[in-house]
Amino acid sequence: MTLEPCWQDWLAWAAAQGIDLPADPGFIQARERVWAASDYVARSVARFPHKFAELIASGDLSKRYGPGELAARLSSYLAEVSDEPGLQRALRCFRRRELIRIIWRDIAELAPLDETLEDLSELAEVCVRGALDHLEPWAWSEWGRPRAPDGRILRLIVLAMGKLGGRELNLSSDIDLIFAFACPGTIQDGPRPLSHDQFFIRLAQRLLKALADITADGFVFRVDARLRPFGEAGPLAMSLTAMEDYYQSQAREWERYAMIKARPIAGDPEDCAALMEMLRPFVYRRYLDFGVFESLRELKRLINYELHRRGMEANIKLGPGGIREIEFIGQALQLVRGGRDPELQIHSIRAVLQRLGHKSLLPQTAVAELDAAYVFLRRVENRLQAQRDQQTHCLPGNPIDQLHLAQAMGYADWASFTAALSAHRERVQTHFDALFAEPEAEAECEERALFAALWPLPEPQAAIERLQGAGFADPEALYQRIEQFHTICLRKGLSTHGHKRLNRIMPQVLKAASECAYPDLALGRVLTLFESIVQRTAYLAMLAEHPRVLTQLTQLAALSPWFTEQIARQPILLDELIDLRRLYRPLRRGELESELDDLLAGLDLEDLEQQMERLRQFAWSQKLRVAAADLTGVIPLMVVSDYLTEIAEAVVVRVLALAWGQLVARHGRPTAVEGQDQGFLVVGYGKLGGIELGYGSDLDLVFLHGSERVTAETDGPKPVSNEQFYARLAQRMIHILTTRTPSGELYAVDTRLRPDGSKGLLVRSMRAFAEYQRENAWIWEHQALVRARPIAGDPVLAERFLTIRRAILCQYHDPQRLKEEVRVMRERMRVNLDRSGGGRFDLKQGRGGIADIEFMVQYAVLRWAAAHPELADWTDNIRLLETLARLALLPGPCAQDLIAAYQTLRQADHRSALSGQPRLIADTELQAEREQVWAIWQALFEGSGETANLNELD
């Protein structure tokens, strides 16, 4: 039916009023499109012609409102309101005017989708707040004022849910609201005592009446309050205490999903903040919550069943490839990871998708396709609802409405529109199925039956035969190990979900282990890990959702017990095994810092406990990736230590920043300090300084500052001396690095290489350090300086340290005295630290081991740097040996032989750490390398003629 008579009626009215129609062709074209697409606008204009005339005259049809403008316009509508009927009438008139404006701008394509959704959401919010601003004072005068124990008047908290919570409201949407108040109590200043529960329930009822009752003027918004605790059976408003009890003990899983978009839109800001703080741990778990996939899969199954039952598969919101599936994709990943990543705790689904793409949690192609589909489907939804201001999501069945919808979407006919719609929905369905597909589907094959029959355990003989048939070396011992694990699971009392997940996982573990080079070893190690996590069913859910993780875990466990030991301590590391692109590609320094930024973003600066947890999770996850790439040969040996060192450096830099920020907030910054930034420097010694960290290395640290004036103080509210400030700064850094949290220790720290060792001050001034090195340091301390370099802190002090280091290393030393002191120190260390014996060789301290090479390099630097200052350029042994070779200071192939031996010994050191036996190998291994190193040592330190003896090795 044509709506042109409505337009002709308005034109006649306008002519009678002397109102001129805009001559702008754009207006004429827009009017025709809007009339074709929206019965609601056409009939509203005919019924209330002055409203449309006002919109034209004000220019509001062609402009976007600024912040606060909609609220200001509502205030003028409500200025003269004095009772509830007047409030209802004013709200409805305002809503009608603004809805005409919003629909006009949407259909005429004067506003993008985001603006339309934002305007509709803002309209709902200002109407809720405007109504409440009148209803509350009227309620106070009628019933009295509810007060908190401190005497302040309590306000009704209105929590927006669903599309309103996400500021994504569509044209004829319900608004989902939950009502709350701060605390229980009794009103004493009213006509009779009234509990807070009674007061706020009555107030909420009046608010619903003001918004949702259908009067001669229509309604403002339909309101759905069934998402509240206990649903329709629950009280309309609850205290925060009662709500907390409900969400902690009785809430259902789907309510977590609903709460993702929860956002306060009215109430005291302090009470609103308390409510959101209370809800956060219910919605976002601190662990990776992969159990959410099961819940959402089941919820989607129920939705599909209901749509099929009612013949509503064409529903663009709930049907296949519809809006809800896009929301499920984004919000499922929010629930899984939002507890660990506060940046994902946002409301808008489009913003969520973009952030998931930025964090590589969704492929960028998927993000682009889902976002495009969301925009398309939401525009279709708005066009459907603009037609008659009805809440519908179903495509029209009659040809006239179909043509109007197609043309409103910019298509010539229904066929071309439905082709575009189908393409979007198919892409959404593909991405949805990829994320929510039942993981067991991959594993359904004939050979799986063999492993499925092994769990739960059959009788012994059958199990042993099946294990033998699967290729396990010692099936009898393995059966006993599996039986032991089964008993432990029973004793620990797994939940029904836990048993179900374990029954899905175990056949896959058995299959993956059988395919390893050492199947018995792999399975035993994985079962040991499972014993520590089996009661934490969220991790079982993760493994059930990602069979590839089980395969990677089992294969890496076969190569090294280090993996399962670390994951048993920190099961959250399982997350690193999900993405194989990440697992075998360790990050370099810039990438590490970026990832650390993302991990710490959103944390409260005062929440040191969470910062420490995240730092530990970061460090261990990065080490895990290095170890995976190392064991599988993706990265060469010499790069392993580079990666491990860069991880430690990134952590130390961030720990310094955290400790500095906390102390400056309390005491201010030190004054009269040399440097351009903090006036503080962290120097790495040993393996950290030499860029040679291993998997279990501690950090040798020395702390220096640039303050020279004894009386200098910080400039903050609680000033302390510079010396105290820097001492506390170092202590806090050590505390952050070494304190054991649920995720373990970040790094062990050794500060005994500072001047005067463990008896000396923890932090020394740069001047005092230089004086000590020149006048009091032992030869072994100069040896240590060979491997020292700035790690974090003030760049000016870093340059000054390097100048001091070069000057010390380039001093002349008497060759014979130097040789003797280095030799005696090494022998003393060997006696005290060498753990060789009993068929084992100590890679570090054994004769011909790593320490012998390090001492020879340090001796060579101190011996020849005075004549060859370039020996002070490097801190790592390989480049120092290459420099010695280039300068021909070690004759013939000695330097190259030491490089080869050092690389081989270091590789064995890494492997021994990953095998759970740090620095120990069988004494029959690497004999040629060890003998060669020892021969060079003897020639260098124990012969009477240095060069002559070395030449004998040539």
The biggest sheet, with number of strands, parallel, antiparallel or mixed sense and barrel status, is: 5 strands, mixed
Q: Given the C-alpha coordinates, what overall shape results?
A: elongated
CATH class of the largest domain: Alpha Beta
The domain tally reads 5
CATH H-level superfamily title of the largest domain: Beta Polymerase, domain 2
The secondary-structure class comes to mainly alpha
β-strand percent reads 5-15%
Mean pLDDT: 89
Counting DSSP H or I runs of 4 or more residues, the number of helices is: 42
Radius of gyration: 36 Å
Low-confidence stretches: 944-949
Instruction: Classify the fold: give the CATH topology of the largest domain.
Output: Beta Polymerase, domain 2
Question: Whole-Å distance between the termini?
Answer: 104 Å
> Architecture of the largest domain, CATH level 2?
2-Layer Sandwich
Percent range of helical residues: 55-70%
Q: How many distinct beta strands?
A: 14
Kindly describe this structure.
The protein is built from 42 helices and 14 strands. The longest helix has 31 residues, at 113-143. Residues 944-949 have low confidence and may be disordered. By secondary structure, it is mostly helical. Strands 1, 2, 5, 6 and 7 form a 5-stranded mixed β-sheet that branches. Strands 8, 9, 10, 11 and 12 form a 5-stranded mixed β-sheet that branches. Helix 34 packs parallel to helix 36. Strand 3 (186-187) and strand 4 form a beta hairpin. The protein starts with a helix and ends with a helix. It has 5 domains: 64-283, Beta Polymerase, domain 2; 292-437, Four Helix Bundle (Hemerythrin (Met), subunit A); 441-570, Up-down Bundle (Four Helix Bundle (Hemerythrin (Met), subunit A)); 654-809, Beta Polymerase, domain 2 (2-Layer Sandwich), CATH 3.30.460; 815-952, Nucleotidyltransferases  domain 2 (Four Helix Bundle (Hemerythrin (Met), subunit A), Up-down Bundle). The radius of gyration is 36 Å and the shape is elongated.
